[in-house]
Amino acid sequence: MIWWLRVHAAPACLAALAACLLLAPALSSSELPLPSLFSGLSSGVPVPLVAPAVPACFLLYGLDRGPWETEASAARRVERTRVTALIAVGLAAVAVAAAESSLLDFTLGPAVARNLLGYVGVGLLVRRVSQPQYGPVAVAALPLVCALLGVGPGGRPYAWCWPLHGSGAAGAAAVAGVLYCAGLVTLVRPGRAAAG
């Protein structure tokens, strides 16, 4: 198990996750200035909504670091270990977000956890339909595409642009949850991405 954690860059993934979740309240007033094609003005995206893309990319990179030949012939089921690790990360993110929301009055806390789960789900789905190395690329591009195309007139995000919605958006949470669960299913049922 220690070998698996080391090969899959678990310390780096946990450090990126901890940095994102612990620095998000400190960056709550910061905005990333990105142009919007449809709102007519340059809108700022709150940094805590974009920051979960970093640990999501680390997690997706860590999943594919091990040689697939070794994992395919392993005595233990590697898929179960991967899913368990991602569920643990998701539960930890939700717990920390809930604690930050109640203790620190950080209103974007649930949105940070939602975006982490959604970004991981998108990356897992992309690596299933293409190659594993494109999962982190898609996750890194998603906030930028959403900022460019997902903000309508008046600076309000469109309904499909779930990463830019605030914590109170139930539709955004549902979309992120479905993406996360669908991504976990792709790990349970190995296909194209497992073959490298």
Brief summary of the model shown:
This protein is mostly helical and 196 residues long. It has 9 helices and 2 strands, in the order ααββααααααα.
Task: Give short descriptive properties of this protein.
196 residues; mainly alpha; two-stranded antiparallel ribbon; 9 helices; 62% helix
Task: Please provide a written account of the structure.
The structure is a single chain. By secondary structure, the chain is mainly α. The protein has one domain. Helix 4 runs parallel beside helix 7 and helix 7 packs across helix 8. The longest helix is centred in the middle third of the chain and has 26 residues. It is globular.
List the domain count as a whole number.
1
Main sheet attributes: strand count, strand direction, barrel closure: 2 strands, antiparallel
> Can you count the helices?
9
The overall pLDDT, averaged over residues, is: 87
Fraction of residues in helix: 55-70%
Q: Ranges with pLDDT <50 over ≥5 residues?
A: none
Across the major sheet, the strand order is 1-2
As an assembly, this protein is single chain
Total beta strands? 2
Q: What is the end-to-end distance?
A: 22 Å
